[in-house]
Amino acid sequence: MPEVYFLQPETSLLYRDMMVYRGSSLNQLKPVRVIMNERQRKFFFALRQEVEDTGKEPSGI
Description:
By secondary structure, the protein is mainly alpha-helical. The chain has two helices and no strands.
């Protein structure tokens, strides 16, 4: 079964900045929609929000 996690605000911008710092071209970067490698898994899973299962969407969305 697929699992959905909500990320902390501006996580994608932080990842983009990290990749540019490591030498990636800003024009070649695309938003991450599917975790494809271990680096992405470690980065995004460390920054996920903990959400209670109340049946409601988390605030801020």
